[in-house]
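pls read this stuff:
=====
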Amino acid sequence: RGRCARGDMAGVLAWFWNERFWLPHNVTWADLKNTEEATFPQAEDLYLACPLAFCIFMIRLSSRGRFIARPCAKGLKIQANGPQKAQSNAILEKVFTAITKHPDEKRLEGLSKQLDWDVRTIQRWFRQRRNQEKPSTLARFCESMWKFTFYLYIFTYGVRFLKKTPWLRNTKECWYNYPYQPLTVDIHYYYVLELSFYLSLLFSQFTDIRRKDFLIMFLHHVATISLITFSYVNNMARVGTLVMCLHDAADVLIEAAKMANYAKCQILCNLLFAMFAVLFISSRLGVYPVWILNTTLFESWEIVGPYPSWWVFNLLLILLQLLHSFWSYLIVKTVCRAISRGKVSKDDRSDIESSSDEEDGPPANQKHHSSATNGTNKNHGSNGYLTGGSYPDEH
C-alpha cells in the first residue's frame, strides 16, 4: 500500500512538472540543471521562502512593540487609543460572542423588546462592539512603518540592481538566449525576499481584522505569489525583476501617507497621497501595459514563441492589470472626494465602520437613544487607503 501511494505521488509530481507545460519546445529540465559553469533557477530554491515568511511575520508583530515603531509613534504623540468601547451589556455581549456579530432585523426586534431599547441603539451597540476589536491608531502606525521600511529597502535594492542590467534599457534582453540565462545571487535574493514578504501578507490576512476587500486582496496575493513562483521556475526572472521593482515604487508612498495621516500631519498626508495617486495610475495603467505587457506578450512571442506556461504567466499578468484598474478607480474616487471636501476622507475600503444615520436607515419615529451609544470614529478622517492594514501593494 505504501509503495502504491509513493507511486501515485510520483505520478502526480511527474504530471505537475511536465516539461512540455513549463518549458519551451525542445528544452528539458536536464538542460537547466546547475553546472560548474552556470547556475539556473531550481524550484526547490523557493522552499527557503516559507520559513523566511514566518520570520518576517514575527518581525512584523514585534515591530508593533517597543523596538522601533512604538518609540517613533510616541515621539509623534500618537496615542494607543482605539475606537470607543460599547457600553457593558451581558445580553448583547452573549449574542455577539456566541451567536452573531451582525444580527438580522428579526433578532434586532427581539432584542429591542427584551432590553426595552430602540433598534437603532442596538444596531449602534453592535457596530461599536465590532469596531472595538479593531486595531488602535498606534497599532496601525506601527504596521505602516513596518511596511514602509520593507518597501523602501526592497525598492532601493531593486533600483540599484536593475541599473546594472541590460534588460532595464532594452526589454528584449529578457528573452535573448532564453531559458539559458544564468541565475545570479542578486536575482535569487530579490526573488526569495519578495516571495517571503507576500507569503507573510497572505498569512496575516487570516489573523488580522477581516476587511471589506478581503477577497480582492486574497486574489491579489495569490496572483502575486503565483507570478513570482512561475517566473522563477521557468526562468523568466529578468522580466520578473522589472515587475517587482515597478510595483514597489508606489507602495513606499502610500505607507508614508498612512503614517502622516496617523500622526495628524494632514498637509503632508495629502501631498504624499497625491504623489502616490499620480505614480500608481501612471505606472500601473501606463508603464505596466506599455513596458511589461508589451515585452511578455509581443517581444517574447517574437523571440521565444508561446508555450503552455507562457500563456498562464501572461494570464496572471493580465489579471494583475485588471486589479490595477479596479484600484485605480478607487483612488480616483478618493481623490474626487478629497477635492470636494478639502482633504483625504473615508472611502469604501475603510476598516472602521460608518455610524451615520444613513447607514441605519431607521424610521423617523424611533426612540431617542443615549449619547453614550453614539457611533464610533464618525470623524475618523482617513480613507481606506490610509487606514491600517492591507492595500494593493503587491505585484
